Amino acid sequence: MEEYLQNLRSLRSQINDIEEVAAKRSVEEQSQKTAIETLEKDLFSVASETTRLNAESKELEKERAQICGQIFEKQEKISSLENETSTLSQSLELLRQQIVSASEGLQEKRMYFAKIMEDSIFKLQQGHDWLNSYEQKIRTANLVEEHYSPSSEMNLENMRDTMGMSYKKHIAQVESKKAKYEELKARKSELCDENAKSKQLMVELKQKTETFTPALKALDVEALEEEHKALLADEAGELEYLKSLDDQITQLKSVSHGVKCGCGEEYMVELKG
């Protein structure tokens, strides 16, 4: 009986140990199950995050490709703009050279026209002086005829020959002035052609600058327009010179004077063009 009780106590002790071990294992299993569930949630979260990151990565790749394409287009535009800028600079330099050349030519023409104007005024004054002298000689001839004598006839003829030569010389001077006037008209035509070319070049330059940025459009264009306005002002001055010269020559051509000789014959002294 004693042995039975001993065995029973031993069995109970073993059962308690087994229950205790079972309880510990149950706790461990529950803990491991919780850990596994947590890991599964973490894995799902990681998978979702990985999917999201992959999608974002693809979007970033697309954006990167678009940005690279835009950068390439902008580089091409910059290269084209640099070429256009170089062309514009060359055109501006060429236009400056043409303006300088035209200004020098206009200055020379102005000096030439001023000299022609001075000569015309001088020749006109000479024409008036010659007419006064011619009238005085006619009066002298009339006085000589009033006191006619055989010895004075030869002097009268010599005087008429001298006046005729002087008249022819003056006519030759008028013809020379006409030739100079025609030359001035030809130069005026050349000047108008040069101005038309300058205007055309300015129009082409403005059309070309329409495709540029505002900064490029402002590149010396204002100064260029001021120089072109000055060029037009110079041309207007030259046209005034030409008109004044034309008036002087017209006035010179219209000079005429009637002189009646003592012999009864009447002379009309005039400068014909």
Summarize the structure.
The protein has 273 residues and is mainly alpha-helical.
CATH architecture of the domain at 88-270: Up-down Bundle
Number of helices: 4
> What is the H/E order?
HHHHEE
Q: Quote the average pLDDT.
A: 70
Low-confidence stretches: 148-152
Named CATH topology of the domain at 88-270 = Methane Monooxygenase Hydroxylase, Chain G, domain 1
Give the helix/strand class.
Answer: mainly alpha
Major sheet strand order: 1-2
How can the largest sheet be summarized?
A: 2 strands, antiparallel
β-strand number: 2
Q: Assess the beta-strand content as a share of residues.
A: under 5%
Structure write-up:
- The structure is a single chain.
- The protein has helices at residues 2-146, 150-209, 214-217, 221-253; strands at 256-260, 266-270.
- Helix 1 packs antiparallel against helix 2 (150-209).
- The protein contains 4 helices and 2 strands, in the order ααααββ.
- The chain has a two-stranded antiparallel ribbon.
- It has a domain at 88-270: Up-down Bundle (Methane Monooxygenase Hydroxylase, Chain G, domain 1), CATH 1.20.58.
- The chain has 273 residues and is mainly alpha-helical.
- The termini are far apart.
- A hairpin with a 5-residue loop joins strand 1 and strand 2 (266-270).
